[in-house]
Amino acid sequence: MKRVPIYGCEFHTIPLKTKIFNSMKNTGFTTTALNVPYAKQDPHNALQMPLYESVAYEFDSAEQIEANFRGEYIAHVYSRTASPTVEYFELKLKALTQSHGAIAVSSGMAAITNTIMALTKSGDNIISGNRLFGHSYALFQKTLSEFGLETRFCSLSNEEEIEKLIDENTRAIYFETVTNPQLDIADIEMLSRVAKKHQLLLVADSTITPPNVFNANKFGVNIEVMSTTKYISGGATSFGGAIIDQGNFDWNLNPNTASYTKKFKANAFLMKVRKNVYRNTGGSMAPQTARFQIQGLDILELRVERCYQNCLALGEYLSSNPKVRKVSYPGLESDERYPLAQKYFNGVPGTIMSFELESKAACYSFMNKLQIIRRATNLNDNKTLIIHPHSTIYAEFTEDERIAAGINDRMMRLSVGIENVDDLIADIEQALK
Ligand code: PLP
User: Taking the C-alpha atoms of 116, 207, 173 and 400 in order, what is their torsion angle to the nearest 10 degrees?
Assistant: First the structure.
């Protein structure tokens, strides 16, 4: 039976081949986003990827379906494993991250869980930064530890300290490109050096620094996990997650993927995730979500640029206001992490910032007076959002744990949106009075 040379549902090995795409290989981010070809030509030449909501897909004959199950005829089968609209989102991610392949899942947490489950087994350990998104921390410390995976937390700032934690059961080093709300930036090149030396995977949560500002492959990251709920969703439209394989790791080196390399070669990890972990745990992305997220990729660069300009303007305004004690945004030249932001993120270390007033009471009074900026916990909405991390995201932490995490009760986090910046400044100004 003829093998049909299509479908991201089979590991995204398909070259992105069309006349338009081939002649535009070196195009910019948004041009690429708008021109990634579909896996299969649309019968109506629709300019927007149609929304395929079907749960299952039909075959022409019993022989054809048998060939499909033997892996000899590639086609969509059942949407918990893969579906056309989600597949197109994955193809766009693959093109935009210039990676080996991408898998979309139901949330950022699903992306992290699937990745770690594919790379480890009971008795293994991973090394992780200790300043993590709270639910990632809880996933490692509580949920996965109950299944026999140990996470060795450390600051990830000291090469020797990391090396001391590595043993024969270590499988990966896990970190967030920019921590939130501290906005620490990892020394990614150092982490990559350690990971390579010990033949470990380097896994980055790059949610805060989307692919138009961070080139993971360039700095030696092997796997990226992202909450596409944030920037990529187009502005808090839907939940999603992505797992990106940069294609720069020899999967024979990980005992938990080695058996897949025989059959799937460079696709060992992606196939383990798709065929073993997420298919069986049921964390697929919904087609409607993919529709939002496809649009989100088209406008990602525009939104990041606007948020970044707003961040710089707000940072300058806040720094000049005597009521503000401290402003943190590594995109500002005055910030000590500015050189790392330049090196790793083209100067754009995400668009989240934090600032401090004199007391918790002052923060609450300020937040309650805001009229345009919204009191909410999400990141990278189109709207600017503010939160008081000490009393919310860190509510379950002891005071000692908060201090260790760099959180005090005078601090607020701003996720900067795309509003007209003069309105944001006016809102802050009236609330500070
Ligand atoms: N990673 C980071 C850095 C996050 O900030 C979040 C959510 O805020 C997640 C992962 C989890 O993403 P989701 O809410 O899509 O599961």
Answer: -100
pTM of the model: 0.94
Distance of alpha carbon 386 from alpha carbon 370, whole angstroms? 9
278 neighbors 105 (Cβ within 8 angstroms): yes
Distances (CA, A) of 324 to 87, 320, 410: 47, 8, 10
Computed over every residue of the chain, the mean pLDDT equals 93
* Ligand 1 contact via 109 beta carbon (within 6 Å): yes
Cα 346 from Cα 177, distance rounded (Å): 13
Q: CA geometry: angle at 289 spanning 284 and 290, to 5°?
A: 80
Q: Residue 41's pLDDT is what?
A: 84
Tell me, in angstroms, the distance from the centre of ligand 1 to residue 221's CA: 19
350 lines ligand 1 (CB under 6 A): no
Give residue 209 CA to ligand 1 midpoint distance, Å: 12
Whole-number Å distance, alpha carbon 189 to ligand 1 midpoint, is 24
List the one residue out of 331, 416, 354 whose CA is nearest residue 381: 416
Q: Is 27 left (phi over 0), alpha (psi -120 to 50) or beta?
A: beta
> Quick one: what percent of the chain has pLDDT higher than 90?
87
Contact predicate 74/4, CB 8 Å: yes
From 348, 339, 387, 392, select the one nearest 231 (Cα to Cα). 348
Residue 12 has what pLDDT? 45
Q: Say yes or no: CB of residue 114 within 6 Å of ligand 1.
A: no
Name residues whose C-beta falls within 8 Å of residue 167's C-beta, 6 or more positions apart in sequence: 125
Domain 301-432: state its class: alpha beta
Assign domain 4-297 one CATH number from 3.30.410.40, 3.40.50.300, 3.40.50.150, 3.40.640.10.
3.40.640.10
- CB of 224 within 6 A of ligand 1: the answer is no
pLDDT value of residue 39: 86
CB distance 187 to 157 below 8 Å? yes
DSSP designation for 80: T
Spell out the alpha helix ranges (H) of 265-332.
Answer: 268-271, 279-281, 287-298, 300-320
**Tokens (6 digits) for 248:** 């720069």
- Three-state DSSP class for residue 358: coil
What is the domain partition of the chain in residue ranges? Answer: 4-297, 301-432
Is the CB of residue 379 below 6 angstroms from any atom belonging to ligand 1? yes
The stretch 338-356 carries a mean pLDDT of: 97
**Ligand 1 site, residue 108, Cβ cutoff 6 A:** yes
Condensed to tens digits (0 to 9), the pLDDT of residues 190-216 reads 999 999 999 999 999 999 999 999 999
